[in-house]
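Researcher: Last one for today. Full complex below.
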Amino acid sequence: MLRAAVPVTDPLRQPVDLDLFQGPFDLLLTLVLREEVDLFELPLAELVVAALGGEGEGRWDPATTSELVVILAALAEVKARRMLGEPDEDEPDPDAEEARERLAHRLVAYEPFRRAAAWLAEREAAAAGPRYRSVPLETPPAPAPRDDAAELVAAMGRLLGARPEPSLVHMGVRRIALPELIVRLREALARARRVSFDEMVAGRDRLEEGLLLIATLELARRGEARLSQAEPFGDILIARR
Amino acid sequence: MTELARRLEALLFLSPDPLPLDALAELTEAAPDAVTGALAELAGRHGPDTGLEVVEIAGGMALRTRAEMAEVCDRLRERPPEDRLSPAAMETLAVVAYLEPVSRPEIGRLRGVSVDATVASLVDRGLLEEAGRAERGGALLYRTTRAFQARFGLRGAGDLPPLERFELTGPEAEAVRRRLSEAGHLPASEGPRPVEGAPAPVPDG
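Model: Here's the assembly. Have a good evening.
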């Protein structure tokens, strides 16, 4: 598909569309050079925002900012006089004259770059047609593989061989059921009227000790045993009822 | 074709980048003058009735397809999506191309608007690159790249018309001053213009 040629336009013949202008000089030059546009229509607020606000882009160095403020003030002054009228004065205000002259100087200095940009756009359109080779230079061939088939087979054998089942010895699972512990407690109580909790759990691990406590409490809840403890953390005496 | 022209053709065909004259001379072990002559001979072989052309671009020589071949070439190889440059980007490029190396504050002062984002996007696109720091103030300087030269069909850095060619003529510059001056004065025939948003005068009675 042919690249659409960028239209090379004379900015003076384009309609004024604020979106097309990205700098105050850009717009101002167009308006000033198009004699049919009244500067009364100058969208001053947009110019100020474009120049100083500008979507929070970057920071200004003080020299640039102060210079811009002067330019924008001159613009504001020009427009204010256009809107409100200027009193008849024998002598024009020298400050106003100077501000306008500075503004005119800046505009005249900037215009060559605007025209150069239009020239570049023209060049870009003209340079859009030709195509260049874009394939990379050939890369050197990869080194020839070593043709040691036996070694390859051995390597694949190691890779594909069945792996030994991992040992799970260290992950032994213990199952202790609460009903069994309750049965064990009942049997102990059947042999003796009262038993010591400490004696029941002697040599057992913490899990079993915990579960036996639950079993003891369960028996007490069912009314089969009475519990007594002389002091906190002391031995619990389990008595048959 | 001479042997040297054949060799140059082979090199230009093979190289994905433009080849500078001295590189061609070194590769072919020929004198630069002889290379120039052989390049002219080669360019003559790839005349307007062929599909290729020999050009000087972006600091070197290249063998490329002619502009008229774009359509058929793009059937073979899809072009990357078009990368249009905004007017702000074009004007920033123009400023840098003429004043390089130049710092962002300088560009901004000239354009009358902050150019940080525009310059950053042009660096991302490979059209501008950093070129050291300014002696005074130490601001980063920027210059155009070979990709810039290739995109705009320039033979090398500084292959631009003199800036004076684009300056306003005396009467044009005078017109700018006159318009700005007139803008501050009412035309004799008009009274004061209403201020936007001001209440309309109440008619008497």
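The CA atoms of residues 8 and 24 of chain B lie 7 Å apart. Chain B is about 45% helix and 10% strand.
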